[in-house]
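Entry 14. Ran structure prediction on the chain below.
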Amino acid sequence: MEPDLPVNPSLIRLRALLRLVRAQNLLTAVADSWAGLIVAAAGSTSTARWHEFGRLALVSAGMYAAGAVLNDLADLDIDRVAHPDRALPSGVVRPRTAFVLAVSLLVVALVAAASLGMSTMIVAATVGAIVVAYDFAAKKVRVAGAVTMALARFGNFSLGLAAMGSAFPKLSGPGLALPLLVALHVFIVTLVSYFEDLRDSAGGSGEVAPGRMSGARRGLLGMRGGFLCLLLGCDAACIGLVRFALPTNFAATLALAMVLLFVGVAGIRLIAAMSASVPHRAAAGYVVAGVQAVAGIDAAIAAAFGGASVAVAMLVFFVVGILTSEALKGA
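Output, structure tokens:
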């Protein structure tokens, strides 16, 4: 018999904190605001500078991480029964520590936003309010929760626009459609996340509760069709933007390549998630892949508006998110 490996408490705590802040998804939030910055810079006489990207990263990642921590604080009583292995119900991270962490992240995000100007500060404060509203109220109603989460992503994209002094009324139709495309994607992903709750209704057993199997199966079939439509819709929308909103052939070619890569890689992951026979498992897998796929959409947008190097960085975000998700799985 092999001896048990020593358990490193520091490593366990680090993994718990990374799961608590949804480390695998943090860079997707950064990709949103960076895409907004690239779009705004394309329609401005100013050039986006590296320190603006850095401060925007602090704002977006800070807001997202704070929202994730507050979400788990709001669900603590439910998670004690349904997800006792998570950071807070397991006791690895204390609720008070999590609260202090969330507030600290919000403060860092707001300070970074203020350094970019009053417009960015206002947008950041609005996003923060939307996140808190989702965590403690809106998510209790499926459609309201999905709309609120979509608004948060819309606002996150707007952070980049605000950092360049842009505003939505000044944008053309394609420019306004960009954050709406991201928001629509997140809206559908958030709706699908409801199916994860089917496990909770059965006491965490992984089986669907009696009397709900028929609805769950119908929902799973609807999810499969909806996911395919979502992928095709994102593909068509991005290609449409490439065709009608791009300044150069090089940008169009690069953006199209980004779209195809997004559809290929994310599509494989989404189809794999849909293959699960138990609805909550299919939903959980899709939510993870769907959120990470946001970076692929943002990469196509950045490439379309001349931010080739930023688009490549976003694809790196996509890969890092996948690797982080696999590393934290079951941690």
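Confidence is low (pLDDT under 50) at residues 1-5, 200-214. Will compare against last week's run tomorrow.
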